[in-house]
Amino acid sequence: MSVSLSGSCLPPSSSLIPIRQLVVASEEQIAAALRNLQALYCPLRLPTAISKPAPKWKHISGVSTPSPIDSGYASRDEKQFEDDVAVSEEVTAALRADPYERTFATRWLTSLISRVEEMGFDEDATASIIDDAAFILSSFSDFTKDEEEEALERDFSFPTASGGKVEVTLNDAPLSGTDHTDVGLQSWGASIVLSSMMCADHERFGLQQETLGERPTIIELGAGTGLVSLTLAKLLPEFGVTGANIVATDYHLAVLDNCKLNVETNFPSEQPPVGIQILDWSQPPADLQSTATMLIASDVIYAPEHAAWLRDCAAHLLKPDGTFWLMATVRKTGKFEGIPETVESAFVPKLCPKDASGRVFKILQKETVEKRRSIGRGDESGYNLYRIGWV
Ligand SMILES: C[S@@+](CC[C@H](N)C(=O)[O-])C[C@H]1O[C@@H](n2cnc3c(N)ncnc32)[C@H](O)[C@@H]1O
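# S-adenosylmethionine complex -> structure
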């Protein structure tokens, strides 16, 4: 990674040495990458060095009366320089706040720490690389008082097909403001719309005993606050499904802590019907292979690699007769442009996983779901609901 000519940092995702090439990178390359990540993410500790150019004064001959070059307080060059710095700071601030770039940098730094011993540098260089990488990672979890916001308790009430109601209370924790990977601390529109759809028409989601069978295992991927899992835990007994093993999973520890709190709030009993488990889509645990009767995921496609990770993770976890419900949020602007389409690109025939019995893991059905008024954020234009499974 490097600093661009304008002085603003370049995005980690397009400038860091690819993780698989780390082991052949030189000490200088790693040091430069770390310096620049520090410039981007620890600006107060290590300001980006933007050297101020010497003002270029117009040459005024000694015989003429000197006249001001600029009627303002600063020369045009100085103003231009100040404007450039302001723009560059704005670009850097936007980059610093970008959750995708931060996740990318986190993964890169974590990989660097785990591989640096194999890179053949001497002991001091290895130790200093580990220190610098850990320093940047630690700044991601800094949480100053000033940035604290009030946690918000939200009550949801979803009408069910039998005329009842499923009620869920959630703690939408404040985003830390510094760790931009903690997006799962808040409930997103897709999880609210999906929960309400499941309550309104549970049969269409196969949420009855005949379809799910005895003691089904339902795993939510990227569960965030756990709204969908909690809704299911309250909905299923209404339709005679008992003994379901519902597991809300996520890869982010702060998100899982908040999810656990939500489970305790909704099920103060000692044996809550929703379990919590860490699960990273890029490395699903081997022991969960073919264990899920149903998989559910909402608003989990917001970076280019997510769809392919989720495809492979779901193929690993789902039983041959299971169903994967994926509710993808459609955002068409900015860095999300093109992301909703990655779901279908990940399931073109040649990329669909196949099992030993010749079954293919593919999209069986797609439905577009409209955005609902006052649900979800302004950049959400709707949702795509996919039914995915083995055939
Ligand atoms: C936009 S939030 C959606 C949360 C929740 N499903 C909802 O709709 O409110 C995306 C969630 O995916 C999780 N996530 C992102 N990358 C992940 C990964 N590689 N493995 C597991 N979870 C991940 C995040 O921590 C976050 O909780």
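# post-check
The chain has two domains: 12-140, 147-390.
Confidence is low (pLDDT under 50) at residues 1-6, 45-76, 143-148.
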